[in-house]
Amino acid sequence: MYKDKLIKINEWTYELPKTGDMLVHGRIFISSKLLKDLDEDCLRQIENVACLPGIQKASIGMSDMHIGYGFPIGGVAAFDADENGVVSVGGVGFDGGCGVRCLKTNLTLDEVKPKIKELVDELFDNVPAGLGIRGKITLSREEVDEVLRNGAKWIIEEKKYGLKEDLEYIEENGRVSGADPKNVSETAIKREQRQVGTLGSGNHYLEVQYVDEIYDEEAAKQFGLEKNQILISIHCGSRALGHQIGTDYLKVLADASRKYNIPIREHELVCAPIKSEEGKRYFSAMCCALNYAYANRQVIAHLVRESIKKIFPKAKVETFYEITHNSCKAEKHEIDGKLKTVYVHRKGATRAYGPGRAEVPKKYREIGQPVLIGGTMGTASFIMHGTEKGMKEAFGSACHGSGRAMSRTRAKKQYWGSTLIKELEQEGVYVKARSLSGLAEEAPGAYKPVEDVVDAIHQANLAKRVVRLKPIGNIKG
What we know:
CATH superfamily: tRNA-splicing ligase RtcB
Shape: globular
Number of domains: 1
Mean pLDDT: 96
Number of helices: 15
Largest sheet: 8 strands, mixed
Structural class: alpha+beta
Low-confidence stretches: none
Distance between the termini: 39 Å
CATH class: Alpha Beta
CATH architecture: Alpha-Beta Complex
Strand content: 25-35%
C-alpha cells in the first residue's frame, strides 16, 4: 500500500507524498533492492512522524530503516520550537546516547592476527559485558550526578580514565549542556548500579578490526588511516539508566500529548512542545543519558587501552572519533534560506556533518565529520565522511549500521550461538560472548547486507565511503 504511493526521485531517493494530516512529505534514501524487502510499516511510521507539530522539511528514512517504537529505526526528523515543535521519546529511543567510539592504533594486521585470541581473551576479562553486569567503578550518589552533568569530561578529569586529548575527538567533546540530574528519577539512578564502563548486551559489541579497503586515499590520509591498520570499535549506550529515562518519560509525554491536544497516531510517538515544562524536562533528562553514554564509552576505551598495552606494550592507542546515533540535539540548519535552530531527532541514524562545521574536530574539518557505520561480527564496518548535500537534504545525517532484517525471536530459532562461534572462527573472526542465545540474536544473517546499506548512502551523497573495516575479533554481552 505505502510502497505504491512512493515517487522515485532518482535511483537512491524516494518521496512519500504529503497527504492527509502530513505536514511535510516523507523522504527515503534507499536502493530499489533494499526497498523491495522493506517492511511497509516503516513507511507508515515515516507518515506518522510527518504529522507531528513543527516538523521541518521532511520525515526522513535511511537505507538501514526498520520498524521501531513510534519512529522507524533509521529515522530522522527536525522540529522548530518557534513553530510548536515537539520532542519525543520515540525519536530518540530507549538507549539515549547509544553510539560508537573508534580507537585507532599503530598496530598492523600482521602483528595482531597471531595474537588475536590472546588479545580478545584479555579484553573479555577486562571489559565487563552482558545483561545487568556491573562495572569496576563504584560511584557515590553525588558522583553519579557529576557523570550525568559532565559525561566523559568528568571521567577523565576526576577519575583519570583516559586522556584529555580524547575529548577533542568525541562528539560534543564528551559533554552536552542542559543536563540536570533533578529531571532523572530515583528509579533510573538506582538502575545505574555501577554500569558505567560496561558493554551491555543485545547488538552492543567490542570489535578488533583492520582497514581492509581504502576508497578515498586523500580522506583516509586526513583521517590518519592506512591499509591493514588495527582499529577497535566500541558500540554501546546509556545502559539501564537510559532505558529507565525513556520509560519514565513515555508516561510523562503521554500526559503532555493529551494536555496540549497533540494528535498521536502511535503510542510511542507521544511528545510535548519543546518549550513546555514537560518538553524541557525530557530534553534535560535525555541529555543526562547522552552524558552517561559518553562516560560509559570513555571508561571502556580506557580498559581497552590497558588490555592492548598488556599484550602489545609499545602500542599507541588514540581516539579516532566517537559519535552517537540515538539522540535529540538543538542544532543550526539552513531551512528555506534561513538559519534556524531545530531539534534534530536521530533514531538509529548517525550525525554526518559536512566540511567546515565548527563542531567537527579541526583535524577533520576540511573533509567533513567521520561517520562510523557498524556492520555485523561476520561482515564489515565502514568509515565515511559527511557532505554538503547531506547537510541540506538530511540535516547532516546518515545510516548507522546494517539494520535488522529479521526479529531477534526469529533469529534465535534460525541460528545457534555455539555454531556461529565455530563458523566465524573458520572465517577468521574470533568471537567471545557472555550469552549464546544473545549471540544467535545478532547473527550476521539477521541483518541487511551492510555493503548495500552503505552504498545507498554513498550514492545518495549523504556521506561518502572512506574505508572498509573487517573484523578479526569480537566480544558480545
